[in-house]
Design brief:
The protein is mainly α and 138 residues long. The protein has helices at residues 2-7, 15-41, 45-63, 74-80, 84-96, 105-137. Helix 5 (84-96) packs antiparallel against helix 6 (105-137).
Length: 138
């Protein structure tokens, strides 16, 4: 939205912007599924609030949003590669570094695919956990 307010719809002519939007939407879907899973696991408001803050800040630092990824400890990067944010940030770095669309689209597609698989996994685990809890309650 901020991009459109600043640059207008002319920004959509740039292929890398379109790929960034696709990657960001995929990230939003996968992250929403992860949040649903966390809420299903930690159903009290205080625990979900605490965990939401902790996970979001740790993910932002561990994936290279708040600090350059080069200075993040490699084992920490490996741990956070299990989060969709890591793969979206990777796509943003790839696309940001290209003036024309000379980026390796195969790598971008792979990262988008990983985020989609993560989203499906998180959503499936949410449904399974919900079903188990419903059976226990009845």
């Amino acid at each position: 939205l901020a991009l459109f307010l600043i640059a207008g719809f002319s920004a959509l002519r740039d292929q890398s912007v379109i790929w960034m939007i696709i990657s960001s939407l995929t990230h939003a879907l996968a992250l929403s599924a992860f949040i649903m899973l966390l809420i299903q696991i930690f159903s009290t408001q205080s625990s979900s609030s605490f965990l939401g803050t902790l996970v979001s800040l740790a993910t932002a630092f561990g994936t290279g949003i708040f600090v350059p990824r080069e200075i993040v400890w490699q084992p920490l990067q490996t741990v956070f590669s299990f989060m969709p944010t890591y793969w979206d940030v990777s796509n943003q770095f790839i696309l940001e570094g290209t003036v024309s669309l000379s980026a390796d689209l195969g790598e971008i597609w792979r990262n988008i695919g990983i985020m989609l698989l993560m989203g499906m996994l998180f959503f499936s685990l949410t449904l399974i956990l919900r079903r188990v809890r419903e059976r226990e309650a009845s």
